[in-house]
Amino acid sequence: MNGSPGRKSALRFRLEEALEESGCAVCRLVERDGRTRLDNLLYELVNDPDVQQEMRHSLGFCNRHAHRMLKMRSGLGAAILYRAVVRELREVLEDASSSKPSSALKTLLGHQDAKPLFVEPGTGCMICAAEKEAEESYLRALLETTEDTPPEELLGGPGTVCALHLSRASALAGGSLPDTLVGMVRTVLEGLQTDLERYVRHNDYRFRDEPWGRERDAPWRAVRWVAGEER
User: Fold this and answer.
1) Could you tell me if 167 and 187 are in contact, meaning their C-beta atoms sit under 8 angstroms apart?
2) The predicted structure's pLDDT at residue 128
3) What average pLDDT score do residues 48-73 get?
4) With 85 labelled, which of 11, 51, 109, 176 sits at a CA distance of 20 to 30 A?
5) CB 229 within 8 Å of CB 23
6) How many Cβ atoms are within 10 Å of 231's Cβ, its own excluded?
7) Does residue 218 register a pLDDT over 60?
8) Overall number of domains in the chain
9) Is 33 a member of any domain?
10) pLDDT of the residue at 109
11) Is residue 108, in this structure, part of any structural domain at all?
12) Is residue 107 included in any domain, yes or no?
């Protein structure tokens, strides 16, 4: 992984700490880093020329991060950032109206694969880019950690790493995963399959009176483990 030994240690420490809580540790860490980046933009960098230029180029944030921004209740920050976006859109539309006659509906329908007049808003969202960078760093830390940490210490608690991030980690590792990590994941999957089978059994009228156990939330855990935490 790129970076100094201190940087590596910090990443590994955060990863191991996140694994002490339930759910995918990587999902949680990436989400946290994205929120921190967005918070910094809104309260410290809205007038930065490079940030303004990026907002114009991408036409703002993606849908998810744009609505997260609104929930952070920084109206001034949102106003300054999206003022740049609105200006960019106005310029694009003014140039289009002055240089090209309007097309008939038939012509429009005949060119459905033509290049759009402007990019889809959020293309190249800077928060998505920050999250992608953070995700790769944490996945590399996961791969390094599992090479020299006993699996029961790493994944012996409530935390896990979802299938989505395991897949991405394997791509970084050249199409494979450390044996210790694979072994722990197989154990997780065995338990999850057992809980899912028990959940299905409970819904058979013949076994409805059997007491429920940890299988009660199995479908939800299965979806979160395979697809990742809700973002």
Assistant:
1) no
2) 97
3) 95
4) 109
5) yes
6) 12
7) yes
8) 1
9) yes
10) 57
11) no
12) no
